[in-house]
Fold these 2 entries.
Entry 1:
Amino acid sequence: MQELTDLYQSVILDHNRRPRNYQVLPTANRVGSGNNPMCGDEITVYVKLNNNCIDDISFQGSGCAISQASASLMTLNLKGKTVAEAEAISSDVYKLMISGQADEKNFSDLSALAGVHQFPARIKCATLPWHAALNAVKDEVTPATKEKTPS
Ligand code: ZN
Protein backbone atom coordinates (compact mmCIF):
# COMPACT_ATOMS: atom_id res chain seq x y z
CA MET A 1 0.00 0.00 0.00
CA GLN A 2 2.96 2.32 0.42
CA GLU A 3 3.32 2.72 -3.33
CA LEU A 4 -0.33 3.59 -3.64
CA THR A 5 -0.05 6.13 -0.84
CA ASP A 6 2.95 7.74 -2.49
CA LEU A 7 1.17 7.85 -5.86
CA TYR A 8 -1.92 9.24 -4.20
CA GLN A 9 -0.04 11.99 -2.45
CA SER A 10 2.08 13.01 -5.39
CA VAL A 11 -0.78 13.05 -7.90
CA ILE A 12 -3.25 14.78 -5.58
CA LEU A 13 -0.71 17.40 -4.57
CA ASP A 14 0.35 18.01 -8.15
CA HIS A 15 -3.20 18.40 -9.45
CA ASN A 16 -4.23 20.54 -6.52
CA ARG A 17 -1.28 22.84 -7.05
CA ARG A 18 -1.62 22.98 -10.82
CA PRO A 19 -5.20 22.05 -11.70
CA ARG A 20 -5.62 21.20 -15.39
CA ASN A 21 -8.40 22.78 -17.44
CA TYR A 22 -9.22 25.15 -14.61
CA GLN A 23 -11.22 27.80 -16.45
CA VAL A 24 -14.64 28.77 -17.68
CA LEU A 25 -15.05 27.13 -21.07
CA PRO A 26 -16.27 29.80 -23.52
CA THR A 27 -17.58 27.18 -25.95
CA ALA A 28 -19.42 25.15 -23.29
CA ASN A 29 -23.01 24.20 -24.09
CA ARG A 30 -23.51 22.24 -20.87
CA VAL A 31 -22.82 23.15 -17.28
CA GLY A 32 -23.07 20.99 -14.21
CA SER A 33 -22.37 21.86 -10.63
CA GLY A 34 -22.23 20.23 -7.27
CA ASN A 35 -21.34 20.99 -3.72
CA ASN A 36 -20.38 19.02 -0.69
CA PRO A 37 -21.51 20.95 2.41
CA MET A 38 -19.77 18.48 4.73
CA CYS A 39 -16.42 19.68 3.46
CA GLY A 40 -17.22 22.98 1.75
CA ASP A 41 -16.31 21.80 -1.74
CA GLU A 42 -17.91 23.50 -4.73
CA ILE A 43 -17.41 22.48 -8.33
CA THR A 44 -18.76 23.78 -11.62
CA VAL A 45 -18.02 21.69 -14.70
CA TYR A 46 -18.21 23.12 -18.21
CA VAL A 47 -18.68 20.79 -21.15
CA LYS A 48 -18.72 21.29 -24.88
CA LEU A 49 -20.87 18.41 -25.99
CA ASN A 50 -20.90 17.59 -29.68
CA ASN A 51 -22.89 14.64 -31.05
CA ASN A 52 -22.84 12.88 -27.70
CA CYS A 53 -19.08 13.36 -27.43
CA ILE A 54 -17.25 15.47 -24.86
CA ASP A 55 -15.26 17.71 -27.19
CA ASP A 56 -13.93 19.82 -24.36
CA ILE A 57 -14.33 20.00 -20.60
CA SER A 58 -13.14 22.32 -17.88
CA PHE A 59 -13.98 23.16 -14.30
CA GLN A 60 -13.81 25.81 -11.65
CA GLY A 61 -14.34 25.43 -7.98
CA SER A 62 -13.04 25.66 -4.50
CA GLY A 63 -12.58 23.23 -1.70
CA CYS A 64 -10.22 20.61 -0.42
CA ALA A 65 -7.25 19.22 -2.33
CA ILE A 66 -9.01 15.96 -3.08
CA SER A 67 -12.05 17.54 -4.71
CA GLN A 68 -9.95 19.88 -6.82
CA ALA A 69 -7.44 17.21 -7.83
CA SER A 70 -10.21 14.76 -8.67
CA ALA A 71 -11.84 17.41 -10.87
CA SER A 72 -8.56 18.08 -12.63
CA LEU A 73 -7.99 14.37 -13.25
CA MET A 74 -11.57 14.06 -14.45
CA THR A 75 -11.18 16.71 -17.15
CA LEU A 76 -8.08 14.97 -18.48
CA ASN A 77 -9.79 11.59 -18.58
CA LEU A 78 -13.21 12.58 -19.94
CA LYS A 79 -12.08 14.86 -22.75
CA GLY A 80 -12.77 13.23 -26.11
CA LYS A 81 -15.00 10.54 -24.59
CA THR A 82 -18.61 9.79 -25.43
CA VAL A 83 -21.26 10.21 -22.76
CA ALA A 84 -21.49 6.42 -22.41
CA GLU A 85 -17.72 6.14 -22.00
CA ALA A 86 -17.77 8.94 -19.44
CA GLU A 87 -20.42 7.11 -17.45
CA ALA A 88 -18.37 3.90 -17.55
CA ILE A 89 -15.19 5.67 -16.45
CA SER A 90 -17.02 7.44 -13.62
CA SER A 91 -18.42 4.14 -12.46
CA ASP A 92 -14.97 2.53 -12.57
CA VAL A 93 -13.45 5.40 -10.62
CA TYR A 94 -16.13 5.10 -7.96
CA LYS A 95 -15.45 1.37 -7.60
CA LEU A 96 -11.74 2.15 -7.45
CA MET A 97 -12.24 4.52 -4.54
CA ILE A 98 -14.59 2.18 -2.68
CA SER A 99 -12.33 -0.85 -3.09
CA GLY A 100 -8.93 0.81 -2.92
CA GLN A 101 -7.81 -1.69 -5.54
CA ALA A 102 -6.05 -0.02 -8.44
CA ASP A 103 -4.42 -2.98 -10.13
CA GLU A 104 -7.34 -4.49 -12.04
CA LYS A 105 -7.31 -2.01 -14.87
CA ASN A 106 -4.91 0.54 -16.15
CA PHE A 107 -6.30 3.82 -14.93
CA SER A 108 -3.00 5.73 -15.28
CA ASP A 109 -3.20 8.82 -13.07
CA LEU A 110 -6.69 7.84 -11.98
CA SER A 111 -5.14 4.99 -10.00
CA ALA A 112 -4.13 7.62 -7.49
CA LEU A 113 -7.78 8.05 -6.56
CA ALA A 114 -7.76 4.54 -5.15
CA GLY A 115 -5.84 6.15 -2.29
CA VAL A 116 -9.05 7.92 -1.26
CA HIS A 117 -10.11 4.51 0.01
CA GLN A 118 -8.04 5.21 3.11
CA PHE A 119 -10.11 8.31 3.84
CA PRO A 120 -13.77 7.24 3.57
CA ALA A 121 -15.03 10.69 4.57
CA ARG A 122 -13.30 12.08 1.49
CA ILE A 123 -14.93 9.81 -1.07
CA LYS A 124 -17.72 12.36 -1.46
CA CYS A 125 -15.12 15.02 -2.16
CA ALA A 126 -13.54 12.91 -4.88
CA THR A 127 -16.82 11.85 -6.52
CA LEU A 128 -18.30 15.37 -6.52
CA PRO A 129 -16.72 16.55 -9.80
CA TRP A 130 -17.65 13.30 -11.56
CA HIS A 131 -21.28 13.70 -10.52
CA ALA A 132 -21.21 17.32 -11.70
CA ALA A 133 -19.82 16.25 -15.08
CA LEU A 134 -22.41 13.52 -15.56
CA ASN A 135 -25.14 15.96 -14.58
CA ALA A 136 -23.85 18.30 -17.24
CA VAL A 137 -23.71 15.78 -20.09
CA LYS A 138 -26.94 13.99 -19.24
CA ASP A 139 -29.02 17.10 -18.78
CA GLU A 140 -30.79 17.66 -22.09
CA VAL A 141 -32.20 21.08 -21.45
CA THR A 142 -29.85 23.16 -19.34
CA PRO A 143 -27.80 25.62 -21.36
CA ALA A 144 -25.00 27.50 -19.66
CA THR A 145 -27.14 30.59 -19.28
CA LYS A 146 -29.57 28.72 -17.03
CA GLU A 147 -26.82 27.86 -14.57
CA LYS A 148 -27.84 28.65 -11.03
CA THR A 149 -25.57 31.18 -9.44
CA PRO A 150 -24.88 31.02 -5.71
CA SER A 151 -26.59 33.88 -3.95
ZN1 ZN B 1 -13.58 17.97 0.32
Entry 2:
Amino acid sequence: MSERLNPGQTIGILGGGQLGRMLAMAASRLGFHVHIYEPGAAPAGELAGQTTTASYDDKDALEAFARSVDVVTYEFENVPATALDRIEALVPFRPNRKALAVSQDRLTEKNFLQEIGLDVAPYAPVDAAAPDAAARLAQALAEVGMPAILKTRRLGYDGKGQARITNTHDAQPALDAMDGADAILEGFVHFEREISVIAARGMDGRIACFEPGENVHKDGILHTTTVPAQIDSDTRERAFGIAGTILAALDYDGVLGVELFQTDAGLIVNEIAPRVHNSGHWTEAGAVIDQFEQHIRAIAGWTLVDPVRHSDVVMTNLIGDDLDHVPAISTETGTRIHLYGKAEARAGRKMGHVTRITGVARDR
Ligand code: AMP
Protein backbone atom coordinates (compact mmCIF):
# COMPACT_ATOMS: atom_id res chain seq x y z
CA MET A 1 0.00 0.00 0.00
CA SER A 2 1.29 3.46 -0.87
CA GLU A 3 2.09 5.61 2.12
CA ARG A 4 0.92 8.69 0.22
CA LEU A 5 -2.29 10.20 1.52
CA ASN A 6 -4.82 11.59 -0.92
CA PRO A 7 -7.07 14.63 -0.57
CA GLY A 8 -10.26 13.51 1.16
CA GLN A 9 -8.34 11.45 3.72
CA THR A 10 -8.09 12.66 7.32
CA ILE A 11 -5.17 14.03 9.29
CA GLY A 12 -5.32 13.77 13.08
CA ILE A 13 -3.55 16.45 15.10
CA LEU A 14 -2.70 16.10 18.79
CA GLY A 15 -3.05 19.56 20.33
CA GLY A 16 -5.46 22.30 19.36
CA GLY A 17 -3.46 25.47 20.05
CA GLN A 18 -2.33 27.99 17.47
CA LEU A 19 0.15 25.59 15.87
CA GLY A 20 -2.56 22.94 15.47
CA ARG A 21 -4.83 25.61 14.05
CA MET A 22 -2.29 26.66 11.43
CA LEU A 23 -1.58 23.01 10.56
CA ALA A 24 -5.34 22.50 10.15
CA MET A 25 -5.51 25.46 7.75
CA ALA A 26 -2.70 24.06 5.64
CA ALA A 27 -4.22 20.56 5.63
CA SER A 28 -7.58 21.98 4.53
CA ARG A 29 -5.93 23.89 1.70
CA LEU A 30 -4.56 20.58 0.41
CA GLY A 31 -8.03 19.02 0.55
CA PHE A 32 -7.58 16.91 3.68
CA HIS A 33 -10.07 16.57 6.51
CA VAL A 34 -8.78 17.39 9.98
CA HIS A 35 -9.54 15.85 13.37
CA ILE A 36 -8.12 17.70 16.40
CA TYR A 37 -7.53 15.96 19.77
CA GLU A 38 -7.21 18.44 22.63
CA PRO A 39 -7.92 18.15 26.35
CA GLY A 40 -8.59 21.88 26.86
CA ALA A 41 -9.87 24.83 24.87
CA ALA A 42 -8.93 24.48 21.22
CA PRO A 43 -8.39 27.54 19.00
CA ALA A 44 -7.88 24.97 16.23
CA GLY A 45 -11.27 23.41 16.78
CA GLU A 46 -13.28 25.91 14.76
CA LEU A 47 -11.15 25.12 11.68
CA ALA A 48 -11.38 21.34 11.95
CA GLY A 49 -14.15 19.08 10.74
CA GLN A 50 -13.95 17.08 13.97
CA THR A 51 -12.64 17.84 17.45
CA THR A 52 -12.30 15.41 20.34
CA THR A 53 -12.14 17.06 23.75
CA ALA A 54 -10.64 14.44 26.07
CA SER A 55 -7.58 13.87 28.21
CA TYR A 56 -4.48 12.00 27.05
CA ASP A 57 -5.31 9.12 29.41
CA ASP A 58 -8.79 8.53 27.99
CA LYS A 59 -8.17 5.17 26.31
CA ASP A 60 -11.52 4.99 24.51
CA ALA A 61 -11.32 8.55 23.19
CA LEU A 62 -7.76 8.02 21.94
CA GLU A 63 -8.70 4.80 20.16
CA ALA A 64 -11.82 6.32 18.56
CA PHE A 65 -9.69 9.26 17.43
CA ALA A 66 -7.00 6.99 15.97
CA ARG A 67 -9.59 4.89 14.11
CA SER A 68 -11.13 8.01 12.52
CA VAL A 69 -7.90 9.31 10.91
CA ASP A 70 -5.29 8.16 8.35
CA VAL A 71 -2.20 9.61 10.03
CA VAL A 72 -1.54 11.35 13.35
CA THR A 73 0.80 14.27 13.88
CA TYR A 74 1.21 16.70 16.78
CA GLU A 75 1.72 20.36 17.59
CA PHE A 76 3.54 19.90 20.89
CA GLU A 77 6.19 17.53 22.17
CA ASN A 78 4.82 16.58 25.58
CA VAL A 79 2.33 13.95 24.49
CA PRO A 80 2.41 11.17 27.14
CA ALA A 81 4.02 7.89 26.00
CA THR A 82 0.96 5.82 26.96
CA ALA A 83 -1.22 7.90 24.64
CA LEU A 84 1.27 7.31 21.83
CA ASP A 85 1.21 3.54 22.43
CA ARG A 86 -2.56 3.50 21.90
CA ILE A 87 -2.43 5.63 18.78
CA GLU A 88 0.54 3.91 17.19
CA ALA A 89 -1.11 0.51 17.50
CA LEU A 90 -3.84 1.72 15.14
CA VAL A 91 -2.49 4.35 12.75
CA PRO A 92 0.83 5.80 11.47
CA PHE A 93 2.31 8.46 13.73
CA ARG A 94 4.64 11.09 12.23
CA PRO A 95 7.18 12.46 13.09
CA ASN A 96 8.25 9.27 14.87
CA ARG A 97 8.50 8.68 18.61
CA LYS A 98 12.25 8.95 18.81
CA ALA A 99 11.98 12.66 18.02
CA LEU A 100 9.46 13.09 20.83
CA ALA A 101 11.43 11.03 23.34
CA VAL A 102 14.60 13.00 22.62
CA SER A 103 13.02 16.43 22.88
CA GLN A 104 10.76 15.78 25.89
CA ASP A 105 13.75 15.78 28.21
CA ARG A 106 16.50 18.42 28.00
CA LEU A 107 19.10 15.97 29.31
CA THR A 108 18.25 13.26 26.75
CA GLU A 109 18.26 15.95 24.06
CA LYS A 110 21.70 17.28 25.01
CA ASN A 111 23.13 13.73 25.17
CA PHE A 112 21.66 12.97 21.73
CA LEU A 113 23.02 16.16 20.16
CA GLN A 114 26.45 15.51 21.58
CA GLU A 115 26.43 11.88 20.43
CA ILE A 116 25.76 12.94 16.83
CA GLY A 117 28.73 15.29 16.98
CA LEU A 118 27.05 18.67 17.49
CA ASP A 119 28.18 21.37 19.91
CA VAL A 120 25.98 22.20 22.92
CA ALA A 121 26.50 24.36 26.01
CA PRO A 122 28.37 22.59 28.84
CA TYR A 123 25.77 20.80 30.98
CA ALA A 124 25.28 18.55 33.99
CA PRO A 125 22.19 16.86 35.45
CA VAL A 126 20.96 18.03 38.88
CA ASP A 127 18.46 15.99 40.87
CA ALA A 128 16.64 18.83 42.64
CA ALA A 129 14.67 16.41 44.85
CA ALA A 130 17.73 14.63 46.29
CA PRO A 131 18.45 15.28 50.00
CA ASP A 132 21.92 16.54 48.99
CA ALA A 133 20.61 18.62 46.06
CA ALA A 134 22.57 21.71 47.15
CA ALA A 135 25.86 19.75 47.12
CA ARG A 136 25.00 18.24 43.74
CA LEU A 137 24.29 21.69 42.32
CA ALA A 138 27.61 22.98 43.72
CA GLN A 139 29.38 20.07 42.00
CA ALA A 140 27.55 20.79 38.72
CA LEU A 141 28.50 24.48 38.97
CA ALA A 142 32.14 23.47 39.43
CA GLU A 143 31.90 21.38 36.21
CA VAL A 144 29.91 23.80 34.08
CA GLY A 145 31.13 27.17 35.40
CA MET A 146 29.29 30.39 36.18
CA PRO A 147 27.14 32.10 35.04
CA ALA A 148 24.80 29.20 34.37
CA ILE A 149 21.11 28.47 33.95
CA LEU A 150 19.26 25.79 35.89
CA LYS A 151 16.34 24.40 33.87
CA THR A 152 13.72 21.75 34.53
CA ARG A 153 14.42 18.74 32.31
CA ARG A 154 10.80 18.41 31.26
CA LEU A 155 7.84 20.65 30.42
CA GLY A 156 9.70 23.97 30.24
CA TYR A 157 8.72 26.40 27.50
CA ASP A 158 8.97 30.14 26.79
CA GLY A 159 11.64 30.51 29.49
CA LYS A 160 9.45 28.88 32.18
CA GLY A 161 11.14 26.55 34.69
CA GLN A 162 14.50 28.36 34.32
CA ALA A 163 16.67 30.23 36.83
CA ARG A 164 19.90 32.15 36.20
CA ILE A 165 22.83 31.57 38.57
CA THR A 166 25.42 34.33 38.48
CA ASN A 167 26.91 33.83 41.96
CA THR A 168 26.72 31.25 44.74
CA HIS A 169 23.89 33.15 46.48
CA ASP A 170 21.63 32.39 43.49
CA ALA A 171 22.08 28.63 43.86
CA GLN A 172 19.50 27.85 46.57
CA PRO A 173 16.73 30.08 45.11
CA ALA A 174 17.37 28.45 41.71
CA LEU A 175 16.99 24.99 43.25
CA ASP A 176 13.79 26.10 45.01
CA ALA A 177 12.43 27.35 41.67
CA MET A 178 12.72 23.80 40.25
CA ASP A 179 10.07 22.71 42.76
CA GLY A 180 11.66 19.26 43.19
CA ALA A 181 11.70 18.52 39.45
CA ASP A 182 14.69 16.86 37.78
CA ALA A 183 16.87 19.63 36.39
CA ILE A 184 19.82 20.29 34.13
CA LEU A 185 22.46 22.95 34.66
CA GLU A 186 23.66 24.66 31.50
CA GLY A 187 26.64 26.96 31.16
CA PHE A 188 25.59 30.43 30.01
CA VAL A 189 26.47 30.92 26.34
CA HIS A 190 27.72 34.39 25.44
CA PHE A 191 26.21 34.48 21.99
CA GLU A 192 26.33 37.13 19.29
CA ARG A 193 22.89 36.25 18.08
CA GLU A 194 20.24 33.56 18.21
CA ILE A 195 19.16 32.02 14.94
CA SER A 196 16.86 29.17 14.02
CA VAL A 197 16.48 26.88 11.06
CA ILE A 198 13.09 25.47 10.13
CA ALA A 199 13.89 22.27 8.28
CA ALA A 200 11.79 19.51 6.77
CA ARG A 201 12.47 15.91 5.79
CA GLY A 202 10.19 14.03 3.44
CA MET A 203 9.39 10.33 3.53
CA ASP A 204 11.84 9.89 0.62
CA GLY A 205 14.63 11.24 2.89
CA ARG A 206 14.88 14.56 1.05
CA ILE A 207 15.73 17.54 3.27
CA ALA A 208 14.61 21.12 2.62
CA CYS A 209 15.58 24.04 4.88
CA PHE A 210 14.03 27.49 5.09
CA GLU A 211 16.35 30.49 5.29
CA PRO A 212 17.67 30.90 8.87
CA GLY A 213 15.89 33.60 10.89
CA GLU A 214 17.39 35.77 13.61
CA ASN A 215 15.44 35.66 16.86
CA VAL A 216 15.08 38.19 19.67
CA HIS A 217 13.42 37.11 22.91
CA LYS A 218 11.70 39.33 25.47
CA ASP A 219 11.02 37.98 28.96
CA GLY A 220 11.91 34.48 27.71
CA ILE A 221 9.30 34.59 24.91
CA LEU A 222 10.09 34.98 21.21
CA HIS A 223 9.55 38.62 20.26
CA THR A 224 10.77 38.95 16.66
CA THR A 225 12.21 36.80 13.90
CA THR A 226 14.09 38.71 11.20
CA VAL A 227 14.83 37.02 7.90
CA PRO A 228 17.45 36.75 6.56
CA ALA A 229 19.64 36.51 9.66
CA GLN A 230 22.79 38.64 9.58
CA ILE A 231 25.15 35.69 9.17
CA ASP A 232 27.84 34.91 6.61
CA SER A 233 27.43 32.16 4.04
CA ASP A 234 29.66 29.69 5.93
CA THR A 235 27.54 30.04 9.06
CA ARG A 236 24.39 29.64 6.97
CA GLU A 237 25.70 26.43 5.38
CA ARG A 238 26.78 25.13 8.78
CA ALA A 239 23.28 25.84 10.16
CA PHE A 240 21.73 23.85 7.30
CA GLY A 241 24.25 21.07 7.89
CA ILE A 242 23.33 20.87 11.58
CA ALA A 243 19.61 20.68 10.79
CA GLY A 244 20.23 17.97 8.20
CA THR A 245 22.34 15.92 10.62
CA ILE A 246 19.56 16.03 13.25
CA LEU A 247 16.79 15.12 10.78
CA ALA A 248 18.73 12.20 9.38
CA ALA A 249 19.77 10.91 12.82
CA LEU A 250 16.13 10.91 13.92
CA ASP A 251 14.91 9.33 10.65
CA TYR A 252 12.42 12.15 10.77
CA ASP A 253 9.30 12.88 8.69
CA GLY A 254 8.00 16.44 8.96
CA VAL A 255 9.12 19.91 9.99
CA LEU A 256 11.55 20.50 12.86
CA GLY A 257 12.84 23.73 14.41
CA VAL A 258 16.48 24.01 15.47
CA GLU A 259 17.47 26.91 17.76
CA LEU A 260 21.13 27.88 17.56
CA PHE A 261 23.44 30.31 19.32
CA GLN A 262 26.06 31.98 17.10
CA THR A 263 29.28 32.42 19.09
CA ASP A 264 32.93 33.23 18.37
CA ALA A 265 33.55 29.48 18.50
CA GLY A 266 30.83 28.64 15.96
CA LEU A 267 27.21 27.49 16.22
CA ILE A 268 25.94 25.86 19.39
CA VAL A 269 22.62 24.01 19.41
CA ASN A 270 20.29 25.39 22.10
CA GLU A 271 17.32 23.11 21.52
CA ILE A 272 15.23 21.32 18.95
CA ALA A 273 11.46 21.31 18.56
CA PRO A 274 10.08 18.29 16.67
CA ARG A 275 7.24 20.31 15.15
CA VAL A 276 6.40 23.53 13.41
CA HIS A 277 7.93 26.42 15.34
CA ASN A 278 7.04 29.99 16.26
CA SER A 279 10.24 31.26 14.59
CA GLY A 280 8.94 29.79 11.31
CA HIS A 281 5.71 31.78 11.18
CA TRP A 282 7.36 34.27 8.81
CA THR A 283 7.24 31.62 6.07
CA GLU A 284 3.54 32.23 5.43
CA ALA A 285 4.40 35.75 4.16
CA GLY A 286 8.02 35.43 3.02
CA ALA A 287 8.41 32.13 1.15
CA VAL A 288 6.74 30.17 -1.66
CA ILE A 289 5.51 27.59 0.85
CA ASP A 290 4.91 27.92 4.58
CA GLN A 291 6.18 25.60 7.30
CA PHE A 292 2.66 24.29 7.95
CA GLU A 293 2.02 23.09 4.39
CA GLN A 294 5.54 21.68 4.22
CA HIS A 295 4.82 19.66 7.39
CA ILE A 296 1.51 18.35 6.08
CA ARG A 297 3.18 17.40 2.79
CA ALA A 298 5.93 15.54 4.65
CA ILE A 299 3.62 13.52 6.89
CA ALA A 300 1.24 12.81 3.98
CA GLY A 301 4.09 11.35 1.92
CA TRP A 302 4.05 14.14 -0.64
CA THR A 303 7.11 15.66 -2.27
CA LEU A 304 8.56 18.61 -0.35
CA VAL A 305 8.58 22.00 -2.03
CA ASP A 306 11.89 23.83 -2.43
CA PRO A 307 11.22 26.48 0.26
CA VAL A 308 12.43 29.51 -1.69
CA ARG A 309 12.19 32.81 0.18
CA HIS A 310 10.89 35.65 -1.97
CA SER A 311 10.86 38.47 0.61
CA ASP A 312 12.83 39.89 3.50
CA VAL A 313 10.54 39.90 6.53
CA VAL A 314 10.23 40.66 10.23
CA MET A 315 7.75 38.56 12.19
CA THR A 316 6.58 40.02 15.53
CA ASN A 317 4.57 38.05 18.06
CA LEU A 318 1.46 39.66 19.54
CA ILE A 319 1.56 38.79 23.24
CA GLY A 320 -1.27 39.54 25.70
CA ASP A 321 -2.60 43.05 25.24
CA ASP A 322 -0.38 43.70 22.17
CA LEU A 323 -3.71 42.82 20.61
CA ASP A 324 -4.76 46.43 21.28
CA HIS A 325 -2.32 47.53 18.52
CA VAL A 326 -4.07 45.51 15.85
CA PRO A 327 -6.36 48.31 14.61
CA ALA A 328 -3.31 50.54 14.02
CA ILE A 329 -1.28 47.71 12.48
CA SER A 330 -4.17 46.93 10.16
CA THR A 331 -3.64 50.29 8.41
CA GLU A 332 -0.02 49.41 7.44
CA THR A 333 0.83 48.40 3.88
CA GLY A 334 2.92 45.26 3.47
CA THR A 335 1.99 43.79 6.86
CA ARG A 336 0.14 40.50 7.28
CA ILE A 337 -1.83 39.96 10.46
CA HIS A 338 -2.54 36.48 11.80
CA LEU A 339 -4.69 36.18 14.94
CA TYR A 340 -5.35 32.89 16.71
CA GLY A 341 -8.93 33.51 17.79
CA LYS A 342 -8.18 33.08 21.52
CA ALA A 343 -10.91 34.42 23.75
CA GLU A 344 -8.84 35.93 26.54
CA ALA A 345 -5.69 38.12 26.13
CA ARG A 346 -3.79 37.08 29.28
CA ALA A 347 -0.28 38.44 29.99
CA GLY A 348 2.38 36.30 28.29
CA ARG A 349 -0.15 34.51 26.08
CA LYS A 350 0.55 34.30 22.35
CA MET A 351 -2.47 35.89 20.66
CA GLY A 352 -1.21 36.23 17.10
CA HIS A 353 1.66 37.52 15.02
CA VAL A 354 2.29 40.07 12.30
CA THR A 355 4.77 39.73 9.46
CA ARG A 356 6.12 42.88 7.84
CA ILE A 357 7.61 42.60 4.37
CA THR A 358 10.79 44.67 4.43
CA GLY A 359 12.17 44.02 0.94
CA VAL A 360 12.59 41.68 -1.98
CA ALA A 361 14.89 38.72 -1.30
CA ARG A 362 18.23 38.92 -3.06
CA ASP A 363 20.12 35.79 -4.06
CA ARG A 364 22.87 34.91 -1.63
P1 AMP B 1 15.07 27.74 26.04
O1 AMP B 1 13.73 27.53 26.65
O2 AMP B 1 16.07 26.76 26.50
O3 AMP B 1 15.03 27.87 24.54
O4 AMP B 1 15.57 29.19 26.56
C1 AMP B 1 14.87 30.38 26.24
C2 AMP B 1 15.87 31.48 25.96
O5 AMP B 1 16.74 31.67 27.09
C3 AMP B 1 16.82 31.19 24.80
O6 AMP B 1 16.26 31.47 23.55
C4 AMP B 1 17.99 32.10 25.16
O7 AMP B 1 17.70 33.44 24.84
C5 AMP B 1 18.07 31.96 26.66
N1 AMP B 1 18.96 30.85 27.02
C6 AMP B 1 18.60 29.58 27.24
N2 AMP B 1 19.66 28.79 27.53
C7 AMP B 1 20.74 29.59 27.49
C8 AMP B 1 22.14 29.37 27.68
N3 AMP B 1 22.64 28.17 28.03
N4 AMP B 1 22.96 30.44 27.54
C9 AMP B 1 22.48 31.67 27.22
N5 AMP B 1 21.16 31.92 27.03
C10 AMP B 1 20.31 30.91 27.16
